[in-house]
């Protein structure tokens, strides 16, 4: 395979890190950012960036670039309209932390044919070009969606980009991704917010706060708009898990008040965390991209914890 | 001041780390552990340890050692009975993570006169002698209680031990400590357990879990008996905070379901975490241990975030 150019739309923490990582992997890469400040910062660091969306997308269309949408959710519809106008046939992915809502917006824009959803499970509490890091994705899971519509050529390109950035690929359906993301990211964000608020009302609490509080509330330092965007666009999956967490805490509350025990919650929580610590990620083997039932087979493999660490054979393999 | 010997009762994670830290600071130090395995491990590492509680306490009485109780809560009454029999006049402290319950037990044992509660705010998810680390307390807050009864001589000795171990001292009343510990440690432990359980029921969740989940559930790896002991012995302070957290999450749940917004929780949580990040700890100045109202003044200073980084003048200062 020749190295397909990469066109990154949005040069914040994730997009900016991706631009750096793809360049470091030797990929031709160029980017767009709405604010001129981000463009200037990226350019000053030696990268190829522009604040002209139409020129950027025209260039993507001419070079057959893989387009990566890395803008916040509220900016997505406008961005998709631009892409539909200037580069409707390019392979297209995104790095947004919810997948079903993006899939719907892409379908509404008529861009489903070459779209493969993506989500690198990496981040920090910071944002903007300056916070980016070309090694942000190293060793992190990167979800690549295997919904029914996905095209094998586009899928292979998104897989390769994730591998080039140092991630391993977890194949998953968009709805299953969103339920998992609600459990491991969106719900923990909300509980961290609640912990921070609860402690802030107690005299002496911040004076004594150490490791468990700092770690447990770290994600509450994330910009509120980002937390809201991911929770609010994933409410269908988040609500039942939020209910479950409230139910567990309420049961523990009654058990503590009535019988002086939090044993049930603590024993089950410890057992769950122990299962997580012993969770292994074997390599996906024996599946070729584009063969019969490849999407279902990859979804099943991802669900079972299998990951892709080196490129699977596919439609463009020699 | 001459260096008072230190007698550590219980050589698990905290007691074992304390034995190492005090020895590294040049203090004469000896320890007791119930299990012979812990004694052998400590002895093999070059420390002075015994499984004979009566001999250890007799030695403490003869040398005027500062006795540090580092056993789990369930073992406390038996340990206090031994101390009352063999070393009732020694200065006495503890490193247990709740303070009011220990204070009551110490009073019941008739040992209040020389007792000053302590709590180093440091730990890991591991336990036992082998998990100990002489640098565990470096840079961590160490609460030293300033309840109405405390004796200035004993207080100065406990302060010095905390400083010798590399901690800074936060003076606090036992009840205020317990409310703060519920907010920053006990409640975060319970929410971490709930997060781990919730995620464990969602296919794909562990496969995608990354930084925010790992950090947010780290404390769920703590041994269940330790989590239960600290939560269950502090239920009076923990219950209202657990109620508050449930209330915050329930309000967010309804706001998300009814209006598609988690804005209120997220904005307040971010603001609280930002206040925590900007929290500073100025040095206590101008208070001498034992002067009029010294306990109230230290409690007020601790509540305001002030800490002790070098020994305050006191009754034994030259």
TrEMBL record, chains A, B:
Top-level division of the source organism's lineage: Bacteria
Ranges for domain Prephenate/arogenate dehydrogenase: 4-287
Classification via InterPro entries: 6-PGluconate_DH-like_C_sf, NAD(P)-bd_dom_sf, PDH_C, PDH_N, Preph/Arog_dehydrog, Prephen_DH
Keywords: Oxidoreductase
One of the protein's GO biological processes: tyrosine biosynthetic process
E.C. no: 1.3.1.12, 1.3.1.43
Pfam families linked: PDH_C, PDH_N
Molecular function in Gene Ontology: cyclohexadienyl dehydrogenase activity; NAD+ binding; prephenate dehydrogenase (NAD+) activity; prephenate dehydrogenase (NADP+) activity
Keyword Oxidoreductase set for record: yes
Family according to the record: Belongs to the prephenate/arogenate dehydrogenase family.
Protein name per the record: Prephenate dehydrogenase
This protein's encoding gene: tyrC
